[in-house]
Amino acid sequence: MPDDKLLVEMYTDGACSGNPGSGGYGTILRFKDSSGKYHEKELTAGYKLTTNNRMELLAVIVGLEALKKPCKVKITSDSKYFIDAFEQNWIDSWIKNNWKNSSKKPVKNADLWQRMLDVMKPHDIELIWVKGHNGHEFNERCDKLAVNSSKSENLLDDNFT
């Protein structure tokens, strides 16, 4: 059976002024149509009181939630927290230990990790880490989106505990 899933490039970043403090995320979705033309969509929002890690995760979640059908998704992020959770198999351990970490304490941001796992299910995901603030065009754009949203006037509530 041919694999006809659309290839989507996703670039993400989160920002926070204070940790916790006001924060935001930036996500860019890109795909190339059959004629070779690229299409892009930017997603961003700001929050009154949040953490950088929550914004890094929300950037990925919102991007995946925006996809209308199963896709091949290359997610590029500068967040070691996000990337390492999968590449170091932290996620598997957290699930196995009922969302407790190696210190037997509740995993931080479990609400977002669980939401992320749900929205990842229909997609074929590839993770790519890039060093932040290092001149990567799309990472820099995502950073600007995240920072600008964190400073906007109509910040949302993040119900983290």
Give an account of the 3D structure.
The protein has 161 residues and is an alpha/beta fold. It has a single domain (6-150), classed as Nucleotidyltransferase, domain 5 (2-Layer Sandwich). 34% of the residues lie in helices and 32% in strands. It contains 5 helices and 5 strands, in the order βββαβαααβα. The model has no long low-confidence stretch (mean pLDDT 95).
According to CATH, the homologous superfamily is Ribonuclease H-like superfamily/Ribonuclease H
Largest sheet, described in full?
5 strands, mixed
Shape: globular
Instruction: List unreliable stretches of 5+ residues.
Output: none
Radius of gyration: 16 Å
CATH topology type: Nucleotidyltransferase, domain 5
Number of strands: 5
How much is the average pLDDT? 95
Number of helices: 5
Distance between the termini: 45 Å
Quick description:
The protein contains 5 helices and 5 strands.
Features:
single chain; 161 residues; 5 strands
Please give the structural blueprint.
Blueprint: E1 6-18, E2 21-32, E3 38-50, H1 52-65, E4 71-77, H2 80-87, H3 90-96, H4 110-120, E5 124-129, H5 137-150
Parallel strand pairs: 1-4, 4-5
Antiparallel strand pairs: 1-2, 2-3
